[in-house]
Design goal:
The protein has eight helices and nine strands. The longest helix is centred in the C-terminal third of the chain and has 15 residues. Helix 1 packs across helix 7. With about 210 residues, the protein is α/β, with parallel strands linked by helices. Bound molecules: guanosine-5'-monophosphate. The site of guanosine-5'-monophosphate has 14 residues, from strand 5, strand 6 and helix 4.
Length: about 210
């Protein structure tokens, strides 16, 4: 069985990534969504172990020391990190693993695992982003302001991603993401064993043999 694809999905806070991921999981069954650790407070409706593992600073720092996180970053004063074991186990099982993380973490992943595919999800415009963040109603105005300011920093890094995806309609966006990841399976570098076999078999047809 071939190894799964590691897909890193980033996008401005409020770009609708979470909803797109949910749709992707509902409509296809070969995906595993990594659950991150964070030191931020749970939002209403979030459950420990489902949206995040909610942990203290000390706990996350201990995980970092023990090299239990594949990547980690600070985002608006809180730690966020990807537990290593789940990702490695799922990839080995052939699942396509999705990390929904911010840009510093995404670039750490690209460094460590260059075969990962990096996708940036953006709303159609920044005005739309502001509307969505305010409409969500889950954050104080100061937090919204820091998230928008962070978005402006993150926008500078979009070219470092492999793909850009505009989240206009959730269904379309989820399907396009699925097609991007499916195509990754066809990269020659991921199919060396099969290629070797075809090459070997083709030798029979060499002239003079
Ligand atoms: P939120 O607080 O809105 O859930 O997430 C804030 C930001 O942290 C989002 O951009 C989200 O993608 C990112 N994030 C979530 N989990 C991780 C993680 O494990 N590592 C990194 N680097 N970023 C994460």
């Amino acid at each position: 069985m071939s190894k799964g694809v590691l897909a890193v999905v980033s996008g401005f806070s409020g770009a609708g990534k979470g909803t797109v991921m949910k749709r992707l999981m509902e409509s296809h069954d070969n995906y595993a969504l990594s659950v991150s650790v964070t030191t931020r407070e749970p939002r209403e409706g979030e459950a420990d172990g489902r949206e995040y593992f909610f942990r203290t600073n000390e706990e996350v720092e201990e995980m970092i020391r023990r090299d239990q996180l594949l990547e980690h970053a600070k985002y608006v004063d809180h730690y966020y990190g990807t537990p290593r074991k789940y990702v490695e186990d799922m990839l080995a099982e052939g699942k396509d693993v999705i990390l929904e993380i911010e840009i510093q973490g995404a670039l750490q992943i690209k460094d460590k695992l260059p075969e990962a595919v990096l996708v940036f999800i953006t709303p159609p415009s920044m005005e739309e982003l502001k509307k969505r963040l305010i409409g969500r109603g889950s954050e104080e105005p100061e937090v919204i302001a820091s998230r928008l300011s962070r978005a402006s920093e993150e926008a500078e890094g979009i070219e470092k991603y492999d793909y850009i995806l505009v989240n206009d309609r959730i269904d379309d966006c989820a399907e396009t993401l699925h097609r991007i990841i499916s195509s990754e399976h066809l990269r020659t570098q991921r199919n060396i064993e099969f290629i070797n076999r075809i090459q070997e078999e083709s030798h029979i047809f060499k002239k003079g043999e």
